[in-house]
Design goal:
It contains 3 helices and no strands. The chain has one domain. Helix content is 85%, strand content 0%. By secondary structure, the chain is mostly helical. The chain is elongated, with a radius of gyration of 19 Å.
Length: 92
Amino acid sequence: MLMEKTLFRFWKFCNRKWVKWPFITVAVIAITAAHFVMSAKYGDTEKAPSWEFTAMLHSALLVMAIIVIVIYKKYIKGKLMEYETDSGNKDN
């Protein structure tokens, strides 16, 4: 129960605009930086592994986003609503 409440508080914290968008920005910059590091190491040709690496990172990020959205819609959103109504904590 304590772990569940902690998870929901963390999710509420991460769901704020000033947390969500900087995280997305940092993730995109990290993927871009990783691509340029691979390009510098192996060259920037079309057959270099840096393109495969970047494509793999982007696809992994998309899959992760889909999984998080599905989990949020199926499980966490309902539990957050229950937690807010039980404890009387409403964020407006």
